[in-house]
Amino acid sequence: MVDMKKSVKLGLIGCGQIAQAVHLPNLTRLSEVELVALAETDESRLEQAGRQVPHAQKFTDYSQLLSMPEIDAVIVCVPNALHAGVAIAAMEKGKHLYLEKPMATGVEDARRMLDVWQQTGVVGMMGFNYRFNQLYQTTQRVVQSGRIGEIVGARSIFSTADQESPQWKKSRESGGGVLLDLAPHDIDLVRFILGQEIAEVSASTRSLRSDADIATVQVRMEDGLYVQLFFSWGAVEESGLEIYGTAGKVSLNRYESLSPTVKGTKAGGQLKQIWRGLTSIAGLPYFVERLRAPMNEPSFARALEHFVDAVRGEHRASPDLFDGYRSQTVIQAAEESALTRHTIIPDSL
Fold first, then answer.
1. Same domain, 115 and 197
2. What pLDDT shows up at residue 143?
3. I need a labelling partner for 179 at 20 to 30 A (CA). Which of 105, 106, 201, 310 fits?
């Protein structure tokens, strides 16, 4: 861990869109944090990123960044196929690790990463930032409190509009497809909110513009509950979750909701409308926070702050690499199910 009296020195590996639009602005705002080095193979992106942190050293080879003894921790946001190699190299150098999703492109690499993480004892945190979004945190509290009764079903959607993507995202061989790009978030949120593991997976995929750019996944939780998940590139921009219970329902739209909507099993007439108005008013601080946040998602900054505090030894990092591994096993099970048309049991630790 890092002495809490000194500034945490960070390195950023990968200076693509997520790094420049999200991580760099947030990292430069964190107190007692110094971003001392950047690494990126594309020199133009490296120069663009360097303008945001002009005092940081710049490298086209990330191994040079990892060799800097003053760096305490690294943020890794390279293309998916490179996650395992970069993360393992960082941990073997004793650097604490914040890794963007997915953990890897396959379970075998993810398991190797777990082994190195346990051997080195560094902080290892996954970039499942939506756990830090207050919409999902409130939804978890509603579900765990029993307010909507016994849970009988749930469904989620994560869909993006058609947009230009890096070439590597278009091919599964190079780490692309919605199951690696979008699914890790919702798989983790299902585990986080329902508080249990995924026991079985069945899935189907379609390839319209690129490899597996549409996926439908059904999972059975440990208690027998079924959850449906839909992922798509090139459709409407939507990210939502609905959870149904014997006493009501809780739902949210990440792009539109100020707070989750909770409904009882019967219509409430005027009282229901008044309650919705009150919950909207309660969500105004979140609305203001979203306006101020990069890409309208305050959870990015909260996740990075949580990581830095874990590096200082203030608490254990969560979600950690075990969470990343569990997500990876579900993704692999979904891919196998889509290929074989059979229900698959995810690998266990």
1. no
2. 97
3. 310
